[in-house]
Amino acid sequence: MAWRMAYDLVIPGEAVPQGRPRFGHGRTYDPPKSRKYKEYVRRLARKNMPSDALRGPLTCPVRLTCVIYRAVPKSWSRRKRADAIADKIRPTTRPDVSNVIKGIEDALNGVWYADDSQIVEYGLIGKWYADEPRVYVRLDVGGGR
To answer: Is 54 a residue whose pLDDT tops 90?
Structure first.
């Protein structure tokens, strides 16, 4: 598929994984930490709304790229920190990539695209170390609106 345009979003701070749903009072709800992170991502996404989505969420196929930058542990030596920043060491600790992506997909649902079922392909997905923790999200748009 030919991707015609891209939208970028940087979410500052450590990524928060989508928590397991909680049950109570006859309903299902997100854990508070997951809910707050999704609201934060939605606010940022609305500020950086794709021009095509100003009339409403996109309804065409999209490709999602999600690059998670984790903070380098402060306890690491200067050499180990340098190796981590140089991509010689990658994070293998929690949260899992899939849980972070699920939370971001849910947050963008109804904002940048009508439903996360429109995600037909993933671009680069992964975790790396960086001085500043953040998540880089890119949405490539296929044909249509």
So the answer is: no
